[in-house]
Protein 1
Amino acid sequence: MTSKPSSPGNRLGDRPIDFSPSLGDKTDYTTCYMCACRCGIKIHLKDGTIRYIEGNRNHPVNKGVLCAKGSAGIMQHNSPARLTKPLRRVGPRGSGEFREIEWGEALDIAIGWLAQVRATDPRRLAFFTGRDQSQALTSWWAQQFGTPNYAAHGGFCSVNMATAGIYTFGSAFWEFSEPDWDHAEYLLMFGVAEDHDSNPIKMGLSKLKERGAKFVSVNPIRTGYSAVADEWLGITPGTDGLFVLSLIHELLRAGRVDAGYLVRYTNAPYLVIDNPGAADDGLFARDENDQPLIWDHNKDAPAAAHQADEAPALRGAYTLADGRRAKPVFQLLAERYLHKDYSPTVVAFQTGIPATTIRRIAAEIAETAFEREVVIDQPWTDWLGRRQEKMVGRPVSMHAMRGISAHSNGFQTCRAIHLLQVLLGSIDAPGGLRYKPPYPKGFDSLPRPSGRPGEVKPNSPLPGPHLGFPQGPEDLLVDEEGAAQRIDKAFSWEAPIASHGMMHMVITNAWKGDPYPIEVLFMYMANMAWNSAMNTSETIRMLTDTDEETGDYKIPRIIYSDAFYSETVPYADLVLPDTTYLERWDCISLLDRPICDADGAADSIRHPVVTPDRDVRPFQDVLIDLGARLGLSGFIKEGGRPRYPGGYADYIANHERQPGVGMLAGWRGENGDKTGKGEPNPAQLDRYVENQCFWREELAPGHRYFRNVNADYLAYAQSKGFVKSTDPVIVQLYSEPLQKFRLAARGHGDIQPPDRDRQRVETYFDPLPFWYEPLDNHATDGATYTLHAVTQRPMAMYHSWGTQNAWLRQIHGSNRLYVPKMAADRLGLVDDDWVWAESRSGRIKVQIRIMEALNSKTVWTWNAIGKRAGAWNLDPAAKDMTQGFLLNHLIDDLLPEQAGGYRYANSDPITGQAAWYDLKLRLEKASPEETAVSSPQFEVLGQPPTTLERPSVLRYGAVKGRR
Amino acid sequence: MTGLPATPPQRKLGLVIDLDTCVGCHACAVNCKEWNAGGYHAPLTDIDPYGVEPDGVWFNRIHSFEVGTGPDTRVVNFPKSCLHCDNAPCVTVCPTGASYKRVEDGIVLVEEDKCIGCKLCSWACPYGAREFDGDAGVMKKCTLCIDRIYNDNLEEVDRVPACVATCPASARHFGDFADPNSNVSKLAAERGGFDLMPEMDCQPVNKYLPPRPKKTGGDTDRVPELQDASPEGGFLGWVDRLLSSTEHV
Amino acid sequence: MHPAYSVIFFTTASGLGYGMLALLGVFVAAGWLPADRWLGFVGLGIAAGLVSAGLLSSTFHLGHPERAWRAVIQWRSSWLSREGVMAILTYIPIAALAWAWIWLEDVSGPWVWAGPVTAVMALVTVYCTGMIYASLKAIPRWSNPWVPVTYIALALATGAVAMDALMRLFGVGSLLGGGTAVVSLVLASICKLAYWRNIDNASPVATAESATGLGSLGTVRPLDPPHTEANYLQKEMGYRVARKHAAKLRQIAILLLFAVPIVLSAIAGVAGDAIGLAAALLGVLSVAAGVLVERWLFFAEAVHVVTLYYGTREA
Ligand SMILES: Nc1nc2c(c(=O)[nH]1)N[C@H]1C(S)=C(S)[C@@H](COP(=O)(O)OP(=O)(O)OC[C@H]3O[C@@H](n4cnc5c(=O)[nH]c(N)nc54)[C@H](O)[C@@H]3O)O[C@H]1N2
Ligand SMILES: Nc1nc2c(c(=O)[nH]1)N[C@H]1C(S)=C(S)[C@@H](COP(=O)(O)OP(=O)(O)OC[C@H]3O[C@@H](n4cnc5c(=O)[nH]c(N)nc54)[C@H](O)[C@@H]3O)O[C@H]1N2
Ligand code: SF4
Ligand code: SF4
Ligand code: SF4
Ligand code: SF4
Ligand code: SF4
Ligand SMILES: [Mo]
């Protein structure tokens, strides 16, 4: 579109069209934070206000595109719900009655509370953060503080994906890998509505479709990505494990696996000791050097695994030198999955996917993997020195997210999907799943959790990080009785591999004082009194419940940092108002959840594009300030002076986790000429800003595949500080750590679960993936509660924080419950009816919409649209409040009582992942007299003393002097 | 000076919208809103933005439809903005001439200063592409981003409509339909681009690409069902055959 | 279509006014009415007043009434523009007629043309109004030849009833006045019933399938609208009266607009002065109420094809 049209228009007397208006007087680059995808943005400013935000074409994440939320950033930045000043609660919790205070007073109050806790019992601080991207700071702060009670929100988000991946192949679907969009010929996507990689997935899908590859979406609901899929499998929630293991059944039955890949790069040939009842049963047979053994066909004898010249057996049963019997992992898994329980005919009914379809998908996958190999003309060498002239791949890719994760069988289901990928040989192979640096990292190379008894002491830091990856019972945070040490009970026998903590249990446990009461609950960027709580009404009650004797709140002090007047702010005793994302420094670090892609390592920053017009401070600055004032060793220099007087920017540039390794990997070293590792560079942030706020280092062509075993890559990764050693990351089909927990449950070893937990650990810690009915489904009367209920992420809205956005809330201003046609007909429901939806723990009234492209046993709604009146500076009568609703009211935070009276968290028994999608319910038509208002409704929240003006007509962008 | 250009426009600028890849993310709609809020039709007023019935001016709106019945029902996301019709009734009904179609490139525009806000053009448009700004009292509409596509202050690559530049799924394409070799002409030709409501005889310039046929049944013929591998070799006997056939040792 | 009261008032009031002007013009030119100053003053005053009030009210619904003058520019393509032009031009013969009738009290000689010219131009104006609607393909129930015909017929019928009442008020009532009313009401009712019959039997012009082009994949139903609250299009074009209400309202319209006035006009035509006057005045009230209902329905029954994107199956 180049040639210039004749201006002005084609008629006399027209107002000339300004074909070339200037976009503003200034442009700036930063990183979007309308969600956690972290796209690069270019901002055009005019007279100090934001005229236009567009995608940064040079940015590795979004390459110029921008989603609906990103484009609505202007309205977030100008939201009338922004907090304006620190607040001290004066009325009862939840009343919204606050006094505005100065920052000095706010910090003094916080210090008063925190210093006292730290000096007496640091456990009495629980510090939990939500949707932030500052975990490399917050975790460090909590570690210096010395409380064991720290985590981000991952426990209710996607820890099942993270751990299942890490324990299997040293990475994860989640954010640490991506499909090979350029080579995949077949993509199986499980339970993804949007994901954190919002824009990259959409760009990838369009590439895939452009190339004519087949895209299959497994999802109870056919919207969004499923709508554009070539094939949609409307699975019944919670049954993916069955479906996937049935595909595996088919592949094994037909002998369609990549045996060569399995013997070289996985533990498929490892010998597993078959010694029922003994302490070594189910562990790998090992040699004197603790190397796992395989059976070498060449020598017809056991040999240490992974030697270049051996011929490992995949099948059979063998007797070791000491007389013990052992079988290769592959034999065990074949025995299990070839069982008829996993045949398509058997699983068809439960999954809702016809047997013929399962067989066809298996055949298509096999054909694509083995008859349509992708060959990249690039030699590479594995860690044993075996050179390959080409990179040969299996172009079947898979991706999965919370449709798998948010079930209490999610860890094992996700492992099953990985097993399928591994059998095809499509891990970091062309056309398959691709690692994103700094991954892979071997599960056994990662930190183990800190905070065991004795490690928590007054006025001292914790010896290591809070979160990690237990290798066995010895890494649990439990006392002699096996009791939990953390307030959320993460890393206890209840959730041994709770690698992201269990934020969803904090309020419940703190309220109960189980395992102990706390003094201060400190939260950041998480709407815990609303959409991120299970059983929201009950959570609200716990936050306001008082101790009968003292009259004090059961959770005595709550400090909260939010940028907006969310539903949680009124429950805080002290509110620390944050800036918006365009007003502060932020760091998207390789130490946290970086923005790398499969072909390059990358990280990025945000920098202030506009100055706040309110009395607010970036939370990270405040945290660093608090750290220094509390005298936390990481935050002060000798003499007690603050170590980072320049606040977060100072910390980003100068903090070193290990020598040479800091928050940012780009432009390190005194002259800024080092990447990955290097001394802090005083000019580092300037270089980032000059480079449009990101850094990326493209990987050499030989470093782009098979990275878990690719010698060159491993050396590179070590040199950059991504990994500690050049050890290969062997794919774990059989997970030995799980067996170790199981052996403990059987009574072996010193560290024993309480009897209450034995059977549970025995059942779920199966070293080979298996399927079990989600716990809550199992505990719920299926004849009464016949419908599964799930939520989906709306693409144009981000959790609760999109609602205040004048543009986005027009798209999703209220939500409906979508009911399958068949169920609606059965219940005599028609479109727009109001119904009561009832679960075993609650009841809500909602309006329905009937849908056909939906699993016939499933109802669903958009997540986090319903709002509480009084919050977000919206009209309290707005539909978000009166018609919108949360499914959360129906989701119990606890499972029903066990024998003995204990109630486990409604979570995955392995990882503690919140089981949002295990919900079952029944519907009943509301009577015509009942008002068309959703239920429950709560008391309208009061407003803080200063609220920003809420315009009744928004004329953003209006040209002055013209109407 | 009245009605539609007497001779067909020299160029026919417009969009191709790919219903096969549109995931319904609303990115195009919001970026359009953002761009145009400060552009030719500034502002794109929002009435009651934080209240009970927010109602804003949007030049592009994303519908979603269910199509078919039973287990084969599919969902199609459906963005809709002005189609810059060749035979645009919105232009011919306009009593003031505020609404017009440009001779140079066929873009249909409203000149706000002349618009009396009679709304007749919105009655005449079958597609709902006209947006009345109740606050300003005038009709507004998609400008095909006329202040982007010819904008000298933008880099060449950026001179495409905002909705096209931002679409993460590349479901929107911009170009000249008068040129048979343009990207849009070719896409429309190859993929069976169609008109909405041809019976209205508006001759829309924008074309929609239909969802591609699903690759469900067809593959059964291409890929035979998997056969049992065990018979000769017993349980997992095939493994040895597989291993001996790979030259890994 | 949303029945905007200003537009309903405009079309009905101006219709009645133009109908009355047309008849007054013809009657006085033909000598069926005396060229009495006061009769002319009141008759033309009411008729022209209604026309002017209608035109004025129609500008109220504009976003920019102060720019209303621009509306006459595009007469070559726009029926709205043509209506505006005609409305303005028609004031010329009206003025001439008024001059002759009220000032000169003599409509003979060259003035005799003032009446018929007024009549023709008034009806052309009404035709233009009808054509504004009839030219909109996007509203299939309007895009119908009966629409302009009915507009003219209703203008004449309502005008005739009003003129009859006027004549009786001035004691110049005649069988012709009542007869004209009865005949024009009968004709108008035939047009209106034909219109209803026509739209009720018309096959749909467009469907949700043709609107989306997705018909080859099956039936099309909306899942989610673009925005959760109604937008301008839905408010403006989405209004539709329920079928059973429409049926009832049609009966009311038939009763008030046709049946009752026909009977009353007939009574007025044959009865004595007092009863005749009362019947004629009641007739005006009835016809006015009836035409308002009719016009409201005209909008409320019309389906715009854009609603196919919002849930209407066919239009
Ligand atoms: N039913 C159901 N419930 C769910 C889920 C589900 O799928 N279904 N999903 C779960 C999952 S995976 C997640 S991650 C959670 C998400 O739930 P939350 O983590 O609670 O996410 P948000 O609702 O976005 O709340 C984040 C808070 O951060 C505030 N905030 C926004 N920007 C800033 C800022 O710049 N600074 C500060 N200090 N605060 C800011 C917002 O105002 C808001 O109060 O929800 C969980 N809840
Ligand atoms: N626009 C937008 N983007 C976001 C967010 C947001 O709020 N808005 N939130 C961010 C956050 S915190 C997260 S955790 C990610 C989550 O990203 P996703 O994982 O994409 O999020 P969900 O909406 O939970 O999607 C779950 C999908 O799984 C399906 N599903 C439910 N149960 C099952 C099942 O048993 N089997 C299968 N196969 N499918 C099932 C649901 O229908 C749904 O489509 O998104 C992130 N990105
Ligand atoms: S996906 Fe959208 S909201 Fe998220 S970072 Fe990217 S542009 Fe921003
Ligand atoms: S941005 Fe693209 S994918 Fe998203 S709604 Fe618009 S056309 Fe569809
Ligand atoms: S889509 Fe509507 S507004 Fe656009 S040119 Fe066609 S008729 Fe006019
Ligand atoms: S609203 Fe404006 S642009 Fe539309 S027809 Fe009337 S004057 Fe023309
Ligand atoms: S072309 Fe421009 S104005 Fe039209 S829909 Fe796209 S972004 Fe909006
Ligand atoms: Mo999440």
Protein 2
Amino acid sequence: MRPFQYTRAPSLAEASNLTAGENTLAIAGGTNLLDLMKLQVETPGQLADINRLGYADIEDTDDGGLRLGALATNTETAVHPRVRSDYPVLSRAILAGATQQLRNKATNGGNLCQRTRCFYFTNIDQPCNKREPGSGCGAIDGIAKLHAILGTSDQCIATYPGDMAVALSALGATVEISGDKGERSVPVRDFHCLPGDTPWIENILERGEIITGIVLPAPVGGTQIYRKVRERSSYAFALVSVAAIIELTDGKFSRADLAFGGLAHKPWHDPRVGECLLGQVPSDALFDKAADILLEDARGFGENDFKIPLTRRTLHAVLSQATEDAA
Amino acid sequence: MTVHFKQDEPDNSNRLDGMKQGVLGKPMPRIEGLAKVTGTAPYAAEYPVENCAEGVLVTATITRGEVTSIDRKSVLSMPGVIAVIDDEKLCTRAAQGTANEAPMQGPAQVCYWGQPIALVVAKTFEQARDAAKHLNVEYRVEEGAPLDPGEVEPEEQEDETVHQGDLAHAMAEAAHSIDVTYTTKGHASAAMEPHAAIAEWDGHKLTVHASLQMLNYNITELADALDMEEDDVRLISRYVGGGFGSKLGISEEVVAAALAAKQVGRPVRVVQSRQQVFQTVMRRSETTQRLRLAADDNGKLVGFGHEALVSNLPGESFAEPVLQSSHFLYGGENRELMLNVARIHRMTAGSVRAPGEAVGMPALESAMDVLAEKVGIDPVELRLRNIPEDDPEEGLPFSSHKLAECLKQGAQAFGWENGPRKPRQRREGEWWIGIGMASAARVHNVSEAKARVTLKADGTALVETDMTDIGTGTYTILAQIAGEMLGLDPKRVLVELGDTRHPRGPGSGGSWGAASIGSAVYVACKAIREELATKIGTSEDKLELNEGRTPTGESLTDLLEGKDLAREGHYEPGDIEDDYTASGFGAFFAEVRVNHYTGETRVDRMLGAFGFGRVLNAKTARSQCIGGITWSIGLALTEALEFDPRDGHLVNCDLAEYHVPVHRDVPDLDVVLVEERDGAASPIQAKGIGELGMCGGAAAIANAIYNACGARLYDYPMTPDRVLAGMPD
């Protein structure tokens, strides 16, 4: 860890001012940032502590949705009665991540901004284009079992590691952002970026912008599933995860909102996958077709080739379960 | 006064069963448990030492070569930095268990990525850590260091080689034969307490608080590394937060702290980071193992072949002893065993819990399952038919042998249904359910040990030895043994461990601690009893002591007449080691579920039945077994060190990415302790426990995976990708 200035931001405007500067990072729960600072993967000159800005409430919105304060903890969010009853996929996704201790400290805004767990990113003595642009990608010919199969580039094959954002993507949530140029709302599905030639850019936040909340749309009907596949049954990142909101009407899919974790540099949402199911009667052939669409451009890097059949099978499992639950 | 006892003959007198206090074997909670869970038991780095500077190791970022320059100036101007140490006495590897000499020194020569090459000392830990990352180091790189065990010509470990009869012929002629190859990945000890040391000099006298398993060897290793006399060195390890082999020998931070403290003229603490512990201390070697089994119509083995390839750095004598129990577990007159070691430039390979059987048994016991299916008999029955009368290679009798009892009692307690088995018979929703079993075996070791027991004039007792308690229950069992022998409530026995000022114990390792140091305490107590017996005009074997009194009501305090009575017990294993093959045996039973879609495997329940001689404390013994079974679950399903194929560095070097089982992976575990007294194993008739609980357990899980879903796998750990690849359509 390098020496750094610690400043408690007294207001949102000041937090924005501070983080607009070079080399200043906002800190909320710090569960990811502090680890990375100890490893010198992150070396901010200043931390702007945003924990006392408020934005920690979970409240109903006028249209029947729910606003999750950016600084509400993951635990508070997962156990909130409305999250549990109206957005169970979100509650389940949060509880599938990290450990109770980490979730008690981690915040919703911070969770969206967590960084990849690629082995080469977290080791400063190894090449990583994300950490040190131009140094190369250690993972492409290295140990890449956890790495991406969709949306990769020759610069980076890291995954976005989180669970919560996968559920938010399926739910069609939006991120509320405040900065010196004003406020804006961005769909979660557009919040994270693919690596392309700029793998160090992981989301659309500009300098000086702070996440203030996450807005869930009014609840919809149907079955909500969060399925996380992993080697050990807790405290492990997803090999593949699926967030699904599925509704059947007259034996046919009338809603199929699907998002995937562990596959890409962002929670993966391909609208064509859900669309191909709509109006159709569930069948193995249909599930295969959905998987074909999802995995059309999938590419493995040796060690992670298995993610392609695993994703197909996990999608089958989720759609079968949803169909049974609906029946 | 020292009383020496060398065991040359079995002792089947069951003396300890005749004592009157009745505390030995009881499930007594750990004496130091409260201190540990309340945070008042100090671990190595936690001793309050005034004016202590902090050292952080600098590690190499090349695989092989030479450090050509270290730019001290690059960090000496940084805040708080006191010194950069690159003394040629710095150790670059940890010492192997029982090495009794300094490990590899000379930090300028780099043999693996992550090797310590220097130490930065600063006022605060944060300053030292930052400076360690900033230190400019230049190297001369020696390209082409072999990293893959398969790419080099291996060295045969000739003392492991057995050629008996004609295995190839037996394989060709036998009614049933199988020829299968297994692989296991490298493993880490992953102890909770990282490796740490605080060194303090007083003139030419050195005191080091460290986290170590075997002070009796460690003091020699440290003195050798520093060119000192042992008498000038004191090592203290009162509490150790897990070792699992990684703290058998001194590791790099111990010598670094001592050298730094000397150079900067004040105490220095060096704590390895979690990543450094993973990358610099010890790995269990990965293995490739070929099993050839030939059996007659009834499943009786006529041929037995086990060949293994392991790896280590050049210059290391340790080769994962994969075949250790294969030499005697099953019969078969035609035998071929061979152990090869490949010299590669991954970090040092050494002892990790149950070296040898931890990986050898999962391969052998999974092969036995393949054979049982081929022969068409129940796998429990196959084992029962192949238990040899005597050691099939040495011809020696077994000291005692409870495999058959463990198989039978375990099967009954688990609810194992005898009979031919078929995979894919039970399904619950997405999950295939199956059961599997395996034998357990782990060689029994004992070692020379000394302990001093003082019966105090006030009627309490004191036990002193430099033996360690690495979380296994040594404090408690020694209080029980002394309490039993001297007729005292164990609460009245004070046990002092982990200080080289005390008599030399055996150290904790190879599961030999309890039987060895327990025997030294037994010998000392017996001498005290003889003294007491003389005082009341009887003989030691007739002396009955209970709650501090003789049967006639005389109290120990009266007998002692105000004087302490001290005896040092010196136990030494004698010729008996050449007369018997001694081993702990057991059986594992597992029920698992395998997800049809995702290949995820979860253990539903597991049971182990074990025979390891006298149980000294039913609670701590059981805890050791449960810990071992938990390791089996990790070995079977998740644990794997991953090395970069280009520079050999360990990539998954923390507890987030090296997957030991979490609570949710460890279900209802049951342990059956099979009654046994092994008079040839040790004077107290106890054998080693600590490691047996993981020697074969992974195979019970592997065999259950096959029984559940039909995926017959040959590569550990059996992660979802592998299960899916092996699952029939």
